[in-house]
Amino acid sequence: MAMEWTEETIARLRDLWQQGLSTAEIGRQLSVTKNAVVGKAHRLGLKPRPSPIRRGAKADKSADKATPAPAAQDAAARTPATPAPAADVTVTEVSVAVVATPAPEPTAAAPAAPAAVAAPVAPVVEENTVSAPAPAAAVAAPPPSTPAPAAAPTVADSAADTVSPKPAAAPAPKAAPAAAAEEAAARPAAKAPRKATPTRAERAAAARAAVTPPRRRSSQSCCWPLGDPGTPGFHFCGATPLPGKPYCAEHAQLAYVKLRDRRDNVA
DNA sequence: CCCTGATTCGC
DNA sequence: GCGAATCAGG
């Protein structure tokens, strides 16, 4: 049960987190719950980032527990100097975040770091579907050759599909949208039987679906990520991709693997 | 209501 | 260490 937080996963978590994506978003992309994300983030030690609430005066359901701590004083003292997280994320730091927030969900991340989020979507932006919240700036300054991370050729055939992360130390190229949708779709159904309200799930699924389907035109350069997103050295392969694929021949080999294998591999 | 993140606590 | 349950602010 203990989810295995591999370096891979953690790296992605860190990256996405740093990008200012909401915990829920990250969770969705990693195929875990937001709680898992938050919990892990905490344990990982990374966790600055504006929180809607400050838990100084936590209501104790038990009234005493093990913390007699003077909440009042504590509350006063605690003032995270919250460094604008999203703010310092520049467009330069293009990353694999992609798929993130479709149109209907601006969420907190959008207003905060729209540029960062939108930028990577550049290729997709052509669709103009996802770019809704995107600030003109981001669109105006489209990366010369930074394609979207894996707008993987959804499913399609039967043999080859999805991604196999692990180019060197690089973060996985956005885990297959198909897979995500797949799981996401199944999860809520089984997981939230008590709540017959598909609203949230429905919306999310729809959003995701909306993003995936729009013909993701693979750009003219391989979008296999190299290096660590967020770091200066990060870049995409850039080689000429195979027709209809986002990756060049070499990386396509790495990227596309049997669906079965992927199951073990991803998420 | 919905969203969000934060903390607690059983596992 | 993990994450569901719970809490709490917008």
TrEMBL record:
Region (Disordered): 45-86, 136-222
One Pfam family linked to the record: GcrA
Cross-referenced InterPro entries: GcrA
Segments forming a coiled coil: none
Lineage: superkingdom: Bacteria
Biased composition (Low complexity): 65-86, 148-199
UniProt name for this protein: GcrA cell cycle regulator
Lineage of origin: Bacteria, Pseudomonadati, Pseudomonadota, Alphaproteobacteria, Acetobacterales
